[in-house]
UniProtKB/TrEMBL annotation:
Protein name as annotated: 2-oxoglutarate reductase
Pfam family, one: 2-Hacid_dh
Source species of the chain: Desulfofundulus australicus DSM 11792
Catalysed reactions, semicolon-separated: (R)-2-hydroxyglutarate + NAD(+) = 2-oxoglutarate + NADH + H(+)
Family: Belongs to the D-isomer specific 2-hydroxyacid dehydrogenase family.
Function recorded in the entry: Catalyzes the reversible oxidation of 3-phospho-D-glycerate to 3-phosphonooxypyruvate, the first step of the phosphorylated L-serine biosynthesis pathway. Also catalyzes the reversible oxidation of 2-hydroxyglutarate to 2-oxoglutarate.
Keyword annotations: NAD, Oxidoreductase
Length: 312
């Protein structure tokens, strides 16, 4: 069998795929003529840069499975895959801990400013009052999306003594996030207006595109911070830029952007924004788990076995 991997994968996953068939691996293949390799391919493994279109699926007549090294699915035409009878498997929960820890890193960065204080001291300063910041204890974390990542984040926030509000129309009040980890479910407006930190954990679709915009940003407190580790399109970047520039919110941490990598952005000019290159889920531990899990699930499908990670 021929297995095409069009973006980077850890060696542990590549080894599993190699035991099943002939692997064509190029971490930059998504930039090239990928369709040519797919004509006789049995499996395709991608991350978030490869656009798996309807036309690509139509031309890959032998394709039996698509593996997604991650959890976001907006780069894959799921309807076309479903119509072609091609299951899509993903890295279910594999990077949830890493993303939750990234959110805490962002909150602690905003709360304590250690890197800035270090530069201040190295530059000859010793202004303790300037770096008297805030505790996370007693602050309110607002979760927009309380699925697997939101739940793990709530667990950690509870240990820090934070109050936790959640908005998720798909989660009933008896889920573990609510019954065990202190999430109080409420409406979107309440989360935005009461939270000190708002963290986004939703897929990108027609309902969530530009969910955070001029109107919803206006609901947030001037002292509040926004953290986005979901998808860039969930936040209207122009509206966020003006909210940050005008001091209508205190800051933002964006791990995802509408265009990745960005060519230019007015956000680059602001001091109250943290920008990282889509790394919230990129820890060594998470990527070993992601690569192994997706490789194993792709092999299961190729062998005609059931997978627990098929997109429904």
């Amino acid at each position: 069998m021929k297995i095409v991997v069009s973006e980077f994968i850890w060696e542990e996953g590549l080894q599993i795929l190699s035991e099943q068939g002939d692997v064509v691996y190029n971490a930059d293949l998504w930039k090239e003529d990928l369709v040519r390799e797919l004509v006789d391919a049995d499996a395709l493994v991608v991350r978030n840069q490869t656009r798996v279109t309807r036309e690509m699926i139509r031309r890959a007549s032998r394709l039996k499975v698509i593996g997604r090294l991650g959890v976001g699915l907006d780069n894959i035409d799921l309807a076309a895959a479903r119509e072609a009878g091609i299951p899509v498997v993903y890295a279910r929960n594999a990077n949830a801990i890493s993303v939750a820890e990234y959110v805490f890193a962002a909150m602690l960065t905003f709360a304590r400013r250690l890197e800035e204080a270090t530069a201040h001291v190295k530059g000859g300063g010793w202004n303790r009052r300037l770096y008297t910041r805030m505790e996370l204890y007693g602050k309110t974390l607002g979760l927009i999306g309380t699925g697997e990542i939101g739940t793990r984040l709530a667990h950690r926030a509870q240990a820090f003594g934070m109050k936790i509000l959640g908005y998720d129309p798909f989660i009933p009040p008896y889920e573990v996030a609510c019954t065990e980890f202190g999430v109080q479910l409420t409406d979107l407006e309440t989360v935005l207006s009461r939270a000190d930190f708002v963290s986004l954990h939703v897929p990108l679709n027609s309902a969530t595109r530009n969910l955070i915009n001029r109107e919803t940003l206006a609901l947030m407190k001037p002292s509040a911070y926004l953290i986005n580790t979901s998808r860039g399109g969930v936040v209207n970047e122009d509206d966020l830029y003006h909210a940050l520039k005008e001091g209508r919110i205190s800051g933002a941490a964006l791990d995802v952007l509408v265009q990745e990598p960005p060519q230019d952005s007015p956000l680059f000019k602001l001091d109250n924004v943290i920008l990282t290159p889509h790394i919230a889920g990129l820890t060594e531990e998470a990527q070993v788990k992601t690569s192994v899990l997706v490789a194993q699930e792709v092999v299961k499908i190729l062998r005609g076995e059931p997978s627990s990670c098929v997109v429904k």
